[in-house]
Amino acid sequence: MKGKVQVMNKIKIVALFGKSGAGKDAIQKKIASSNNYHSIVSCTTRPAREREKNGINYFFLTNDEFAEKVMNNEMLEATSFRGWFYGTSLDSLNQEQINIGVFNIAGVETLLEDSRLDVLPIWISAPDKVRLLRSLNREENPDCAEICRRFQTDEADFRNINFDYEVVENIDLQSAIDEVNKIIKYFYSI
After folding, report:
1. Quick one: angle between helices 173-187 and 24-34, nearest 10?
2. 8 Å CB contact between 126 and 169
3. CA 27: distance to chain centroid?
4. Please, which contacts does 27-35 make with residues 24 or more away whose CB atoms are closer than 8 Å?
5. Which H/E stretch holds residue 33?
6. Is the C-alpha dihedral spanning 148, 132, 159, 47 positive or negative?
7. Is residue 107 a contact partner of residue 79, using CB atoms and an 8 Å limit?
8. Which of the 8 DSSP states describes residue 56?
9. Residue 148 is inside which H or E element, if any?
10. H or E element: which one contains 19?
11. Which of 126, 18, 13, 29 is closest to 77 using CA atoms?
12. Helix, coil or strand: residue 119
């Protein structure tokens, strides 16, 4: 993807996506905290996992609250997964800053179709062994069956991506962060 002329009055979004355990959330958190970027906090109806906090990891909503946001066109993108709903609320963005968030492939596709947005998709990649170890170490009592299911689902989901994106290999977190920052600065000419 080549740098482009900055689009005025569009909301800038860096859309990180990748397979489970690739380190998308860690990269988002570090980049947003060390730059003047706005971290996007998505909404979900699923229960919080160990160590997740409302308003920091997700906005944990009831089904009714989520449905109301969708009906009022307050969601940029929304999807269901295993009986839970996930989405990005328009009010979670900052018009004045570069917004950075984690999305699934369908979410990135929806963002790219929205004429109000200037989207930079970045695929965060990591070797399977690294991803598996991260997934197992993320929680004290990991659901191994769920981790295996997510790995299998990722293989199918990532076969046919129909949009342009950059790829950053995340074996070493700091190197991946440096590469993502370099891509953002080039893309948005900052």
Report:
1. 60
2. yes
3. 10
4. 27/124, 27/168, 27/170, 27/173, 27/176, 27/177, 27/180, 28/100, 28/101, 28/102, 30/173, 30/177, 31/100, 31/177, 31/180, 31/181, 31/184, 32/100, 34/177, 35/98, 35/181
5. helix 24-34
6. positive
7. yes
8. T
9. helix 144-157
10. none
11. 13
12. strand
CB 151 within 8 A of CB 130: no
The model's pTM is 0.86
Contacts of 73 (CB under 8 A, 6+ apart): none
Assess contact for 169 and 125: CB atoms under 8 A: yes
pLDDT tens for each residue of the chain, 190 residues long: 555 555 468 999 999 999 999 999 999 999 998 878 999 999 999 999 888 899 988 999 999 999 999 999 999 999 988 899 999 999 999 999 999 999 999 999 999 999 999 999 999 999 999 999 988 888 788 888 888 888 888 988 999 899 999 999 999 999 999 999 999 999 999 8
Amino acid 108 reads V
Side chain identity at 134, as an amino acid letter?
R
Q: Which domains does the chain have, with CATH numbers?
A: 1-40+97-190 (3.40.50.300), 41-92 (3.30.63.10)
